[in-house]
Amino acid sequence: MQGLRPALEVTGLGVDLGGHPVLDDLSLTAARSALTSILGPNGAGKTTLIRCCTGLIRPTRGSVSVLGTEPGGTAAAARVGMMPQSTGAWSGIRPLELLRYLASLYARPLPVDALADRLGLHPLAKTPYRRLSGGQQQAVNLAGALIGRPELVFLDEPTAGMDPHARRATWELLRELRTAGVSLVLTTHAMEEAAALSDLIHIVDRGRVAVSGTVTELTADGSSLEDVFLANTHAGLGG
Ligand SMILES: Nc1ncnc2c1ncn2[C@@H]1O[C@H](COP(=O)(O)OP(=O)(O)OP(=O)(O)O)[C@@H](O)[C@H]1O
To answer: What is one cellular component GO term in this UniProt entry (predicted)?
Structure first.
């Protein structure tokens, strides 16, 4: 039955870019109403994986199923949200104009003003997106990912550049969404973030899943999550 399938099923995924394998026989799942974190060094393939899951890249090998449907198809579009790492496309638009436009694309969007309040966007209402600070742009990106009431949301380093207040507020929001039944898949380099939020963690290295488990399982021998990360991955940059 479709309702019992995981939110995300990735099977034997392979992606070649620039003549090189970026993802190589990568398989993982993310459960419904859960928060799943994808960790990995710089260049491990996390963003590429999310792009496959949202239909932006067609894999060279393997398959992806989101909510039991094909990524990027019309069935998935209305039910899947994405917060990208950065987006230059919204350069001149003001945050609330952007959210109102995005809301107009969905049948049952969240109320724009309430979401903007929640993410502290009202004071930024008149500032073009490109003039916002990095953390403020992240808050707008997050609002854009959530405005359509997605059942599954991909968040690519959602709190990168956020100060501790904004980061904690974002954690709270993500926890509330999970409690409300939303499935969340995020990438992060912040080990304490992954440890605080995740129901399940996949550590990716060189395009493959190196190890998966709950925080309790991964750290059962007394290691920190960072120790587990370091022991299961190669240096991504300059290492
Ligand atoms: N269009 C492309 N052509 C060639 N190589 C690419 C292309 N896009 C990505 N890559 C390469 O694929 C690898 C994985 O990139 P990706 O952005 O998925 O990594 P990541 O795990 O998200 O890294 P980070 O943590 O630094 O954001 C990198 O080596 C990158 O240079």
So the answer is: plasma membrane
**Which residue has a Cα nearest atom 25 of ligand 1?**
42
Let me know if residue 213 belongs to a domain: yes
**Full-model pTM:** 0.94
Task: Indicate which atom in ligand 1 lies nearest the CA of residue 236.
Answer: 26
The model's pLDDT over 113-127, given as tens digits with 9 standing for 90+, comes to 999 999 999 999 899
Query: What's the Cα-to-Cα distance from 9 to each of 110, 114, 122, 140, 198, rounded to whole Å?
Result: 27, 33, 37, 28, 17
Count of structural domains, the chain:
1
User: Residue 122: inside a domain, yes or no?
Assistant: no
The one-letter amino acid code at 229 reads F
Ligand 1 and 86: CB distance under 6 A: no
Which ipTM did the prediction report?
Answer: 0.98
* pLDDT band at residue 87 using 50, 70 and 90 as cut-offs: low
Pocket flag, ligand 1, residue 132 (CB < 6 Å): no
